[in-house]
Amino acid sequence: MGKVEESKLQDDLRTRQLEYLVQRFGKKILKLAYYHLRDRQQAEDIVQEVFCRVYQNLDSFRQESSYYTWIYRITVNLCKDYLRSAYYRRIIPWSDFRYLDNLRKSEERMFEAVEGGDVFRKVMDLPLKYRTVTALYYFEEMTTQEISQVLNIKENAVRTRLTRARKILRDLLMRGETSHGRQQTGRTTPRSQKSS
């Protein structure tokens, strides 16, 4: 077999391997990117970039971790790079773009409602470091050890963030239930107590 045929065979093998990885992890990677960015279109762009990098580096993958962990780590790093980038931090005169920003936010809220309703939306409102570990733990059912590998933080840090996130969520949900009750009745005390 000649070098050209061997090269074509390797490219075909890599392409099939990439197709398998996209099929297996594509939706999870999209969710992970969304958990970080809260922008579906940007998350989709990150997913494309992730799989481009996976394809380019398939031959150099050393199998020190699973494909799952490797791809998740690429995703997290690209999301962090994007959030630190000049493009993301660029100042835009929002007064001119309020309508577009409100439209985008309402589209994102619709996506969040479809994904998991009120609790999902509350999780997505958490600060990034709590949102990510909570989403990976509860929605993606990853262990604290897997999360620590993916995010490249200590397992104790994952547990601490989960504990703090649960407390914040509990407070948010309690406030939401209280304010919801007031909105419904318009009263803070039951009718029978008021007339006494």
Describe, in plain words, how this protein is organized in 3D:
The protein is mainly alpha-helical and 196 residues long. The protein has a domain at 1-90: Rna Polymerase Sigma Factor, Chain: A, CATH 1.10.1740. The chain has nine helices and no strands. The longest helix is centred in the N-terminal third of the chain and has 35 residues, at 3-37.
Question: How are the elements arranged and paired?
Answer:
Layout: H1 3-37, H2 40-57, H3 67-84, H4 86-89, H5 94-124, H6 128-139, H7 144-151, H8 155-185, H9 191-195
Which features characterize this protein?
196 residues, mainly alpha, Rna Polymerase Sigma Factor, Chain: A, elongated
**CATH class group of the domain at 1-90:** Mainly Alpha
Helix content: over 70%
The CATH topology of the domain at 1-90 is given as: Rna Polymerase Sigma Factor, Chain: A
Structural class: mainly alpha
State the end-to-end distance. Answer: 96 Å
String of helices and strands: HHHHHHHHH
Low-confidence stretches: 91-96, 102-114, 178-196
Reported for the largest beta sheet, the result is: none
- The count of helical stretches stands at 9
